[in-house]
Amino acid sequence: MQFNDDADLDTSQIEDARGSRGGGGLRGGPGLKIGGGAGILIAVVALIFGISPDNLGLGDGGGGSDLPADNQALADSCRSGRDANARDDCRIVGVVNSAQSYWDGEFTARGGRYSAAPTRFFSGSVGTACGGATSAVGPFYCPADRKVYIDLGFFNELRTEFGARGGPFAEAYVIAHEYGHHIQNLTGQMAKVGNDRQGPQSGAVRLELQADCYAGVWAKNATRPQPNGAPPLITQLTDQDIADGLDAAAAVGDDRIQQEFQGRVNPESWTHGSAAQRQQWFTQGYRAGDMGSCDTFSGRI
Q1: CA 74 – CA 90 distance, rounded (Å)
Q2: N or C: which end of the chain has fewer CB within 10 A?
Q3: Are 220 and 242 in contact (CB under 8 A)?
Q4: What's the mean pLDDT in 220-236?
Q5: Alpha helices (H) along 50-131
Q6: Nearest C-alpha neighbor of 174 from the set 157, 197, 160
């Protein structure tokens, strides 16, 4: 994945609270290991379901973050695509900028209006409008405050705990998936799930697969000119990049996780879909490049 060296990065789309502790968070530090299959599954639900930690039973019902972000260091370091090509945190800034630029243009083309969602970098624990959470729950989207939350150390966990190969686009896939949840929140699709949160044909699985499809749609359009006619922020995605993204999608499939951490697969407890399904729907979005191809709520999946 290559960024346009001369493109400007917009760090105002990031709230950098690394090194801070959010109010209402659970106790626990970066790199917290979750023992047992159930713990791992709960952690992954936060990554791919995008509901609040409080609803997962991981929060204490606390309110939003009470510590302000300080973006100055990030703004000083992440000025251009050249920085995104050189630094991990700047690369995530670039992915956030690219995803939001695409969805803003897509909503406009469809006669709608896109509402931007900040991504909040944190370390250790964080308070959100959905409740408190630690780094252990992985990246997640909070519908109540319309923010994406991530401890950047999660990407190491993706490799060491879940067996993904990693790579820049594997990280981009994770971020794009979370912004897929933001799109679902804006369009009302998230509300379709209700209490249908388990099983191979459940609303939860359909929501997750649609977010994967939306991630693929963004990837297909990421190297195209931006809605305002400016050159794309991302200039190149290789076949290997897409393969890394598919590998990351498979690594967090329900069947893979259950087999690895429980020694058996139980589809009736699935909340996000199998490895093959996750790859299938990302590929569907990537091939079509159109969010209209992402209807996971009709028919069988």
Answers
A1: 8
A2: C
A3: no
A4: 90
A5: 72-77, 81-86, 88-109
A6: 157
Distance (Å) of CA 281 to CA 160, 173, 183, 248, 284: 25, 13, 16, 13, 5
DSSP reduced 3-state for 80: strand
Tell me the per-residue pLDDT of 111-169, one tens digit each, with 9 for 90 and over: 999 999 999 999 988 888 888 888 878 889 999 999 999 999 888 888 877 778 889 99
Q: How far apart are the first and last CA of the chain?
A: 30
Residue with tokens 């804006």: 186
Rounded Cα distance between 269 and 293, Å, is 27
Both tokens assigned to 177: 């998936």
Q: What is the pTM of this model?
A: 0.87
Please provide the size of the chain in residues.
301
CA distance 97 to 285: 20
Distance (Å, whole) CA 208 – CA 231: 31
